[in-house]
Amino acid sequence: MLTGAAYAQAPVERLGGSSSTSQLTLEQRLSQLERVMDARNKAQMALLEQLTALQDEVALLRGKTEEHAYQLEQVMLRQREIYQEIDRRLAATPTPAVTVPVDNAGMVSAGTTSPTYSADLNENDAYDQAIKLVLEDKRYDAAIPAFRQFIERFPNSTYAPNAHYWLGQLLFADGQFDEAKQEFAMVMEQYPDSNKRADSILKLGIIAQEQKQPQSARAFYQQVLSEYGDSTEASLAQKRLAEL
Questions:
Q1: What long-range pairs does 208-217 form, CB within 8 A, spacing at least 24?
Q2: Per-residue pLDDT tens over the stretch 149-169
């Protein structure tokens, strides 16, 4: 009887041990599966964040590209207007004479690198010469003194606001912000009816922004919006305000 009882208990012990082992293995597999799913979810979230960041960068680049394309279009339009203006004046006036400085012996002075205007150049011719240096000859360094000379000789000219504006543009492009500010401010303050006034105020805002003066920049941009709300300069001012 003892032997029979021993044999009867043996299967129960083996079954109990097998069930515990199977349960432990299942828990391990579930734990491993949870870790795998958690790692996969984290990887997917990281990819989603990277995708969102890339989409934001693409949107930003697209906006800047559109803004640059718009600005280039406006520059081309302004240049075309200036060319038309020059053609009209050149058709009505003779080609100006240009002289080169000479010494007492009648020879070209040493160190002369560019021609100067002769004393009989009239107002239209002097302005045409300065504009030509910018648009046709691309001699921007020579155009700066040409516009200064024009302003000095013809301070009350009808072209004076344009001369101040173009001088400001040249100085701005050359990084001479303080001097450029003086020219743009002259257009803003002295020539309220000039078609260059809106862009001059906009440029004053851009210079203030470049010089880390956000309050001044904001004031100039808001002035453009207030006084020229339907202009292309107002659209650019609005975009600049959003960047401050």
A1: 209/240, 209/243, 209/244, 210/177, 211/177, 214/244, 217/244
A2: 999 999 999 999 999 999 999
